[in-house]
Design brief:
InterPro entries: HD/PDEase_dom (IPR003607), HD_domain (IPR006674), HDIG_dom (IPR006675). By secondary structure, this protein is mainly α. It has nine helices and two strands. It has a single domain, classed as Orthogonal Bundle (Hypothetical protein af1432), CATH 1.10.3210. The chain binds fe (ii) ion (FE2). The site of fe (ii) ion has 5 residues, from helix 3.
Length: 172
């Protein structure tokens, strides 16, 4: 049973504000990759898809004179931490199952090593899937954050993905 759909998440003002900031097209692409990887690896597809869609919701804008400043970003970025918290708050508000909301938040927290001072994280299968799904959509120079998609098209893609998830559950 799914408590919350991707479409509902997308339409919430918190998602509208922060997911568009780091690239809506990227968020949708990662959600699709996460669905596929989860289905292949017998990980819960709903949890994975939501974590994929929300993984970059914690980004702050590190601009200096109108240009993205990688040095500032590298020094100060905590998007995985911020994203975990922001996604969790949004999901709980929408009525998500708290166990699932926690799993999604942790998958977002561990989707990148960039905030860690050193050393690798030992990831659960779900957490590995979100990292991999993100890497599958990466483009040189962070170009994946700048691909755009119109609201209506984004909504249609997410509705389709919601239907794929529902179909997946009805078959299993
Ligand atoms: Fe990403």
């Amino acid at each position: 049973m799914r408590e919350v759909s991707l479409t509902e998440i997308f339409q919430h003002r918190i998602a509208q504000k922060y997911i568009t900031r780091s690239g809506l097209a990227h968020a949708i692409a990662v959600a699709y990759h996460a669905f596929q990887l989860a289905a292949q690896n017998e990980v819960d597809v709903d949890t994975a898809t939501k974590a994929g869609f929300l993984h970059d919701i914690g980004h702050y804008t590190w601009y200096k004179n109108g240009k993205w400043d990688y040095e500032l970003y590298r020094q100060n970025d905590i998007h995985a931490i911020k994203g975990a918290e922001r996604a969790h708050k949004l999901l709980i508000r929408l009525g998500e199952n708290p166990v699932k909301a926690k799993e999604i938040a942790l998958a977002i927290l561990f989707h990148t090593d960039s905030f860690l001072p050193g050393g690798e994280v030992v990831r659960t299968p779900l957490q590995s899937i979100i990292k991999l799904a993100d890497e599958k959509d990466e483009e040189p120079g962070g170009a994946h954050h700048y691909r755009t998609v119109e609201y209506d098209r984004a909504l249609r893609s997410l509705k389709q993905l919601d239907e794929k998830i529902n179909l997946y559950y009805s078959k299993s």
